[in-house]
Amino acid sequence: MAIIELKVPSPGESITEVTISRWLVKDGDYVSKDQEVAEVESDKATLTINAEDSGAIKIMAGEGETVKVGQVVCSVDTSVKGIAKATPPAVSQKQEPKVAMPESVKAAEEPASNGYAKGLPSPAAKKIMEEQRIPPSRISGSGKEGRITKGDVLDVISKGFDASTVPAWSGTREVERKKMTPLRKKLGQRLVSVKNNTAMLTTFNEVDMSRIYAIRAKYKDRFKEQYGTSLGFMSFFTKAVTEALFHFPAVNAMIDGDDLVYHKYCDIGIAVSAPKGLVVPVLRNAEGMSLAQIETGIKNLALKARDNKIELKDMEGGTFTITNGGVFGSLMSTPILNPPQSAILGMHNVVDRPIAVDGQVVIRPMMYIALSYDHRVIDGRESVGFLVKVKEMCENPVRMMFGGKDPNELLLGF
To answer: Is residue 177 part of a domain?
Structure first.
């Protein structure tokens, strides 16, 4: 009998404990070499444990259990050959309610295969399913080994899944208690620390998105065809931020003991809502990137975060952060600092509003933007000036090509 012990990998320096988030197989199941068997989570990242060889797995730690880095949590008996593939663990201890489903959903195709992941949603798919209250039993997975993908969920929704058929409030006095994840606990500690240890203020402005809308409408198809990614708002704002940081370097600075550290580069953190909570992967040297490079970089980081593949090195550093609450419908908010950074830009929902242009009332797509900053590092003049510069460049995107200046000003030598 050849037994291979699988140990908890290290998510990074200074991390000694992790939590078993969930097992992707059952005790005794047959697993293949390199198959993902478990997800473990620390206060900084989520990673997987993979089988080092094929065989029957023996699980030695339960879901939700805190284990040491390097601890043996399962083993694989490689002498076991040719048994049936694993079946997925139950998503929940509770039975999914029996609900009436539209005929279009009932007629969905069967999964591509009946492997270990059959009926198990990916992290991105699970998040949408929870938000829309769609039971896993109502979706046929088209992913590898029958896994439910984000596309499968969106397809079911587009075909007319009626969430109103799922019972809402039961009328009972029941409560459900869940253990707080290490990531959520760490996030809470950091947020409280920011409120207690910084002089945080927020200033607001608004951006007329008409010209950005016009550029996207004219070039979005060609852009996607050439670069393989969509042209979104985030690349324009990231580019505008890097130019504004050049003109207001204090916004790109941070406190280190008794010193102020001014960064000569822009590592921009992009806040992403992942299944386990908010994470902020970083675009390195964004000041030298084109719009296409920014969009591609954001897309790759977002996919890693939503599939729980984000690594600690992807989130380390960062000199400034951008968060977009507009994707959730937020009209205005006061974003909280991402320590040790001194400022964060909040983007919001775009809404058609009446504004005055040249003495006339016109309807324009408008977005409120907010800059939260540490007043110990950044003065009011700098914070307001920075936000105005971002506004100017988003309303006149050609400025992004000329160091934040209007081309006519350069021509005239201003």
So the answer is: no
Same domain? 376 vs 250: yes
pTM score: 0.68
Known catalytic residue: 375?
A: yes
Residue 237 sits in the same domain as residue 334 = yes
Residue with tokens 């080092």: 52
For the stretch 123-159, pLDDT in tens is: 778 878 877 778 887 788 888 778 888 888 887 776 6
Do 158 and 18 share a structural domain? no
* Residue 174 belongs to some domain of the structure: no
Q: Which of 307, 358, 375, 406 is catalytic?
A: 375
| CATH code at position 120 | 4.10.320.10
- Residue 267 shares a structural domain with residue 286: yes
Is 267 tagged catalytic? Answer: no
Residue with tokens 């880095």: 69
Are 123 and 307 spatial neighbours (Cβ–Cβ below 8 Å)?
Answer: yes
319, 266 Cβ separation under 8 angstroms: yes
Question: Which residue out of 27, 34, 352, 379 is catalytically annotated?
Answer: 379
pLDDT exceeds 50 at position 112 = no
Q: Are residues 62 and 152 in the same domain?
A: no
27 Cβ contact partners less than 8 Å away, ≥ 6 residues apart:
57, 58, 59
For 299, phi and psi rounded to 5 degrees? Answer: -60, -45
> What is the band of 41 on the pLDDT scale with cuts at 50, 70, 90?
confident
Total domains in the chain come to 3
